[in-house]
Design a protein that fits this description.
heterodimer, A: mainly alpha, Four Helix Bundle (Hemerythrin (Met), subunit A), two-stranded antiparallel ribbon, about 75% helix, B: about 110 residues, mainly alpha, 3 helices
């Protein structure tokens, strides 16, 4: 049995807050916010890539690139692959929660929304673990890192923690938003606003997944 | 039995998908992630440019999948696409320009 859902302003009897553009103004506002967020994250990613390239160029000039390259030494992909899978799975559970809400299947909604919250929390937990591990390995929020007893002046650590830290903060805000939506729907299951509330929280959640897709490839794999 | 929700005719355009469809998209995205990791693990067998192009292409597929089907931007109102993709275009331009201008300097301050 499959359930079909519509994606727009929600249920037929729900009054959308139509603005002059003819679309729900809350949804338009959120998309505009997400547009501004792309600039924010691309700036952080670009800054990190630039300082990694500069660090590599400096190390290559000194002939020490092979054993002092911060990316190959610090960033493993085992944990990050798990984190990427968790966020991807949470995007799936989020869209399933939205689908359940559109047909007013609140039991399924609660299940999938809770799964999304748990998967997101696991991601944040994994990221905290990674940060602690990197800190003990010598990569810190400081303009240098220590490898094989050598101190290398570089903004690699600063830009890495700033970028991934802000992403983690966004995920944490997303979890709080999802919990708030979950509680609101539980308290007011008959509210006609529910599908749109869930859709907005879901859009934000998918966006943080989208940012991780970029970080995973650009920072960890390439 | 398929359960349906009525469409709101006076709102923006939108598409209907079944839950099965979302599972399929999720599965495809998982396979693409596995491919990315697999290619990373055999990096040495690829030419550097080819490696870059393949991984960027796979990331693009994943991103497009999330935006189009999970965020439902495909088939939704055009104005949503406009307010999202125009800043994204600026962001990519900024990224490429800054990488070209500032990357290859020796020394922390360039």
């Amino acid at each position: 049995m499959s359930s079909s859902v519509s994606h727009g302003t929600g249920e037929a009897h729900q009054k959308p807050l139509l603005g002059s553009m003819g679309v729900d103004s809350r949804k338009l506002g959120l998309w505009a916010f997400l547009g501004s967020e792309t600039l924010f994250f691309v700036t952080l990613i670009t800054t990190h890539l630039i300082f990694y390239a500069r660090t590599k160029a400096t190390l290559a000039a000194a002939g020490t690139l092979e054993h002092l390259d911060p990316r190959t030494h610090y960033l493993g992909i085992e944990l990050t692959t798990v984190l990427a899978t968790l966020l991807l799975a949470s995007s799936l559970t989020m869209v399933l929660a939205l689908a359940a809400s559109k047909v007013k299947d609140w039991k399924k909604f609660r299940f999938w929304q809770l799964a999304t919250i748990l998967l997101g929390s696991a991601f944040v937990g994994g990221q905290v673990y990674e940060f602690i591990h990197l800190y003990h390995e010598g990569l810190k929020l400081a303009p240098q890192y220590v490898l094989e007893g050598e101190t290398v002046k570089s903004l690699y650590g600063v830009t890495f923690f700033t970028m991934t830290g802000f992403h983690g903060l966004h995920v944490t805000i997303g979890i709080i938003w999802l919990i708030a939506t979950y509680v609101k729907v539980a308290k007011f299951p008959d509210s006609p606003e529910n599908p749109m509330d869930i859709e907005l929280a879901g859009l934000y959640w998918h966006f943080v997944d989208l940012v991780w897709v970029a970080i995973f490839t650009l920072i960890y794999l390439i | 039995m398929a359960e349906h929700v009525a469409h709101d005719d006076h709102s923006e355009d939108h598409e209907s998908h079944s839950t099965k469809f979302y599972w399929i998209i999720g599965g495809i995205l998982a396979v693409v992630t596995a491919l990315e990791v697999g290619i990373f693990l055999v990096e040495s067998s690829f030419d550097a440019t080819l490696f870059l192009v393949i991984l960027l292409g796979l990331a693009l597929i994943k991103g497009a999948g999330v935006i189009a089907f999970f965020m439902h931007l495909r088939g939704d109102a055009k104005v949503f696409q406009f307010v999202f993709f125009i800043p994204l275009l600026f962001a990519f331009s900024l990224c490429l320009a800054f990488l070209k201008l500032f990357s290859n300097h020796v020394g922390i301050a360039g």
